[in-house]
Amino acid sequence: MPRPASLAFAIALALSAAPVFADAPAKVTTIEGITEYRLANGLRVLLAPDDSKPTTTVNVTYEVGSRMEKYGETGMAHLLEHLMFKGSPNYPGKTIVQEFAKRGMRFNGSTWYDRTNYFETFAASDDNLDWALKMESDRMVHSNIARTDLDSEMTVVRNEMEMDENDPSRILWEKVSAAAYQWHNYGKDTIGARSDVENVNIEHLQAFYRQFYQPDNAILIVTGKFDEAKTLEHIGQYFGAIDKPARALEPEWTVEPVQDGPRSVSLERVGDNPLLAALYHVSQGSAADFAAVQVLDEILTNTPNGRLYKALVQKKLAANVGGTAMALHDPGFEMIDVTLEKTQSPDKAAKAMLDTIEGIKKAPIIEEEVTRAKRAWANFYETIMDDPAQFGVHLSEAIAVGDWRTLFIDRDRIAAVTVADVQKAAEAYFKESNRTAGRFVPTPQPDRAPLPPPVDVARLVADYKGKEAVATGETFDPSPANIESRTKRYKLANGMQVALLPKQTRGGTVAGSLRIETGDLASLGGKQMIGHFTSTLLMRGADKLTRQQIADRVEELKAKLTIGGSAEGLTVSFETKRDKLPELLDLIATVLRHPSFPDKELEELKTETLTGIDGQRHEPQGVALNALGRHGSPYPKGDIRHTSSFDEQTDEVKAVKIADIKAFHAAFYGTDHAQLGLVGDFDRAAVEAQLAKLFGDWKSKQPYTRVPRPYIDMSAATEQIETPDKANAFYVGRLSLPLQEDNPASVPLIAGNYVLGGGALKSRLVDRLRQKDGISYGSGSGFQPNPFDANSAFSLYAIYAPQNLAKLKTGIDEVVQTLLKDGVTDQELADAKSGLAQSWLISRTQDPSLASQLALQLWIGRTMDYVAARETRLNQLTRDQVDEALRENFDTSHLVQIYAGDFAGAAKKGAEGGH
Predict the structure, then answer these.
(1) Which residues pair with 323 in a beta bridge?
(2) Is the residue at 626 inside a domain?
(3) Residue 465 forms part of a structural domain
(4) Is 764 in the same domain as 900?
(5) Same domain, 399 and 273
């Protein structure tokens, strides 16, 4: 752990006692509500105030990533991302994560090719913002970057590497990009070479930190609700006190030459599903033609409208297709990926994939494709600009390209893209000689792609003005009392329950959640997969609309629409704009009430589902979770509560027929047992009339009674499952409790779980397994109180390397036993109260989350008064109440634990002296 330096700490206290405005931020420009300032030390500051939600996001982006790493020092930027959470003399690592937890902050750090960023989203308050600014300014130049911290974190980083090694698609990406780039660092994985990371020179790592973690190489972004003048003053006080570095940053001069022929790479590992990939070099993210590349990516890889989907999935040559256009500082790449079902031919799929990508000259781009793709991109940009937290993080990617204003320039360029632009980009870059794929084909006369010229980003953005800033919404109080006072609840004629909460929102957005409950224990027998497929196929055809037309209609309405469910019911989640809501509700009613269930869509869904099942057969996490669900279950095959094995799931998928799905929909679907929550900018009277018309007369033919799930008494059990050739292992445990959510012990157990493993990076499990033992990249616990049955549950989980199995078992057991023996501390309880309360508050500021919460309350039979009472009970909790609840309910003699991993392989390597 970090070692406090008393002298440095004393100096910091002296400075904080007499704050002096070291630097007044100077305004540079304002674009669409975002104002840039600059300090004399070179720090750039972006402020984007928005009072519509009571949350604030602080994001610090450093213009350093794996692109800047030297030979033998790969992974340094990523290592520093980890060590930046280990603290400084003024902010020890435990203090940082403890403050995150206490303040209920949502936080993270990430490293990519051209940048590293750190962000915190929190409930808006002067105290939270002031602490975040002080902390970020301190760790910018005072982080410990100590040998002891590096040693303790090394196993965690190695664990993260091993987690990546478990994912064939992740490794295929790494191998293909490495083959595609001969010299440039974009060919090296951001996480670094294992040998470089494990043998890193601490002095070199510290020098890397001092070189790049400086104000003149950083951009501070503050978005959301905050006092702009006061924030500027504090930024000047905290960040302005940092000296401008004397060193000069060296430019990178490596330029990847034009690829002069197709390249190929093969990857052989244990697995079930063949994968294909194709990489093509393209221009840098700031280039004028990159917008055409982005549009082309959407035309090729969209599901279900993309050319690759139609050429591969619809023709049963593949199960899934995807792709991404990488917007990077230097010339980047387009990566196409294809997943096959194990019986499909890789040869046939590869030929169809390459013919589609490289055959655009023979099958030119058409206007309809470009229009659809541009609409999808326009909706994407509008969505991120409607959300201050998401917007602030997306600015990091634009900064990595060269300047934050490229975010808006890219949006404008996409809007202006023509068919000719897309066709030109396709013919320039998507050609055989510019391809890295799974094969090598000699070419006597290579047709080489052009080398994109460099872009003068400063000149590009110099006179850019942008569009008008998005209109903000009302200042909304997310307290349970205010939400309750502004929510109207009522029933339609058929019994459907509705909760409406109209309010003014940024961009005129509105979000909804519709739950439909179906059937009962007897009528749902043997219909698990049929019910799941019924809900999944709803969006794949309805009335006279095809799947493509439904997808197009959703984009036209600037909406998000997802439908998911099981035999016991489904949930419809949606977001749109005020003026589009009536049309979206009409579309939802059409999809729900008049699905067409096309035969070809069922066959495609079967292939996708079977591929997904096969993909889980050898994955430690999938295997462990399936085993946990099946352990001790008394429910026979056919019971809706039965957890099917992978083989049973496969048989169930193959057995489903269109007639089964149509019959299930006709018998079980209706809104007489449905709940709708709607939050945002809408006309309440108009919505009430429309809901009555669309859903007020729709009743299910089959009666509904909630399927009971009573408590099952189980004795402690341990199961260890082998998953060969997997570098990572997975642990999961479950403890069932004969306790209902309204039990007085429920809230104390919620707090106790927060201390045990629910408090993100600050919890007993994380402190032990990650911070102390350094054996787990991710671990934690959960408590799931049941609102209906006296059958709640604690869960535990951890990701780890199989050779650390013994350490993991010891660590988990000692953490649990110590907590039960000694109880929680005053500080832990205070942090749990604060973290939980602010986390719940943040969830109520997100309209989709609040809409879902209101719908769920209707089903359970609650109001926001229950939420207020729960928060009161949380605030009044004592240590004795938490300790008593844990000791009475966390009975380890009933704990079921599953371990899945390549334990035999790890033992063999250990015996051979391998790592």
Answers:
(1) 336
(2) yes
(3) no
(4) yes
(5) yes
Measure the CA–CA gap between 187 and 351, rounded to whole angstroms. Answer: 25
DSSP states of 32-51: TTEEEEE-TTS-EEEEEE-T
Strands, sheet with 218-224, edge to edge from the N-terminal-most edge strand? 26-31, 34-38, 44-49, 218-224, 55-62, 116-123, 106-111
Mean residue pLDDT across the chain: 91
- Does 268 share its domain with 232? no
- pLDDT tens digit string along 214-269? 999 999 999 999 999 999 999 999 999 999 999 999 888 889 999 989 999 988 77
> Is it true that the peptide bond before 49 is cis, omega within 30 degrees of 0?
no
- Quote the pTM value: 0.86
Closest-CA residue to 591 (of 558, 562, 555, 567): 562
Is the sign of the CA dihedral 629, 634, 640, 644 positive or negative? positive
Residue 745 CB partners (closer than 8 Å, separation 6+): 739, 885, 888, 889
Q: Is residue 252 part of a domain?
A: no
Structure tokens at 645: 């094995």
β 896-901/497-502 pair status: unpaired
Residue with token string 């009522």:
490
- Worst-scoring range by mean pLDDT, 450-464, 637-651, 835-849, 894-908? 450-464
Residue 123 CA to residue 58 CA, distance in Å, equals: 12
765 near 888, Cβ under 8 Å? no
- Structural domain including 102 reads 6-166+179-238
Q: Quick one: how far is CA 591 from the chain centroid?
A: 28
With a CB cutoff of 8 Å and minimum separation 6, the contacts of 867 are 480, 840
Between CA 611 and CA 320 the distance in angstroms is 9
C-alpha distances out from residue 522 to 19, 641, 662, Å: 71, 11, 19
Q: Are residues 323 and 219 in the same domain?
A: no
More confident residue, 608 or 438: 608
Q: Which long-range contacts (CB under 8 A, 24 or more apart) does 817-826 make?
A: 817/892, 818/764, 819/752, 819/755, 819/756, 819/764, 819/886, 820/886, 820/887, 820/890, 823/879, 823/882, 823/883, 823/886, 824/751, 824/752, 824/755, 824/879, 824/882, 824/883, 825/879, 826/879
* Same domain flag for 386 and 487: no
Question: Which residues are within 8 A (CB) of 394 and not within 5 positions of it... i.e. 6 or more apart?
Answer: 384, 407
Query: Residue 689 to residues 347, 581, 582, 683, 684: CA-CA distances in angstroms?
Result: 56, 13, 11, 10, 9
> Are residues 788 and 706 in contact, defined by beta-carbon separation less than 8 angstroms?
yes
- 118 is written with which tokens? 């750190």
Both tokens of residue 236? 């000047």
CA nearest to 665, candidates 573, 593, 740, 612: 593
pLDDT digits (tens, 9 = 90+) for 861-871: 999 999 999 99
In a domain, residue 862? The reply is yes
Domain of 841, CATH number, reads 3.30.830.10
DSSP state of 703: -
Contact (CB, 8 A) for 376 and 553: no
The pair of structure tokens assigned to 733 is 């445990």
Same domain, 596 and 683: yes
pLDDT above 80 (res 23)? no
Tell me the per-residue pLDDT of 316-331, one tens digit each, with 9 for 90 and over.
999 999 999 999 999 9
How many Cα atoms occupy the beta-carbon half-sphere of 134 within 13 Å? 15
Question: Where among 238, 253, 277 does a domain terminate?
Answer: 238
486 and 428 within one domain: no
d(CA 194, CA 209): 20
**One domain, residues 223 and 282:** no
For 793, the 3-state DSSP assignment is strand
- Tell me how far the alpha carbon of residue 311 is from its chain's centroid: 29
Task: Report residue 136: phi and psi, to 5°.
Answer: -65, -40
How many helices and strands, by DSSP H and E, does the chain display?
Answer: 34, 25
- Identity at 546, one-letter amino acid code: T
Which of 435, 452, 469 finishes a domain?
452
Q: How many domains are there within the chain?
A: 4
> Is the C-alpha dihedral spanning 547, 552, 557, 561 positive or negative?
positive
pLDDT tens per residue, range 652-687: 999 999 999 999 999 999 999 999 999 999 999 999
The token duo for 463 is 């006179």
Q: Please state whether beta strands 44-49 and 218-224 pair in parallel, antiparallel, or not at all (unpaired).
A: parallel
